From TrEMBL:
Residues 7-19 have a biased composition (Polar residues). PANTHER family: OS05G0588300 PROTEIN (PTHR48010), PROTEIN KINASE DOMAIN-CONTAINING PROTEIN (PTHR48010:SF29). Residues 1-22 are annotated as: Disordered. InterPro entries: At_inactive_RLKs, Leu-rich_rpt, LRR_dom_sf. It comes from Triticum aestivum. Signal peptide: none annotated. Pfam families: LRR_1. This is Leucine-rich repeat-containing N-terminal plant-type domain-containing protein.
Length: 143
């Protein structure tokens, strides 16, 4: 049994489970949860990639907090997440280049990316978005 709601003809409300030690990866079906506005899954045992579909298809998602897990892979482009206000992916194992369009999400106000393996520069609306990121993140490796 999967710990997350799955899309079907019968929609279910979303639940958040911070610190519940949910194992496994984030299913792309999370993007199909009707009226998903806030998703708090920080401090769990989540691994694998962050599904781009979650940012693309969850059209009402305002807050996505998935810090302190073991997510890996590239950071998906969040520029098409029209209503996303807060994205915290700190303390994971995300790696690669920062999407150049990351700060272009129109409503994004808080972005947490500290303690990952990311490289590159954040260009765009730096003066409008609070970014939590350490210098070692910019270099692409944790020390």
């Amino acid at each position: 049994m999967r710990p997350f709601p799955v899309c079907s003809s019968q929609r279910r409300p979303a639940n958040s489970s911070p610190g519940a030690q949910l194992p496994g990866s984030l299913p792309t079906e999370l993007a199909c949860v009707e009226h998903l506005r806030h998703l708090y899954l920080s401090g769990n045992g989540l691994n694998g990639n962050l599904p781009a579909a979650l940012l693309l298809n969850a059209t009402e998602l305002h807050v996505l907090l998935i810090a302190s897990n073991d997510l890996s892979g590239a950071l998906p482009d969040a520029s098409y997440a029209r209503v996303l206000q807060e994205l915290n992916l700190s303390d994971n194992a995300l790696a690669g280049w920062l999407p150049t369009t990351l700060l272009r999400a129109p409503g994004l106000a808080v972005l947490g990316l500290a303690n990952n393996y990311l490289a590159g520069e954040l260009l765009g609306h730096e003066d409008e978005v609070f970014v939590e990121m350490t210098k070692r993140d910019i270099g692409g490796a944790r020390r």
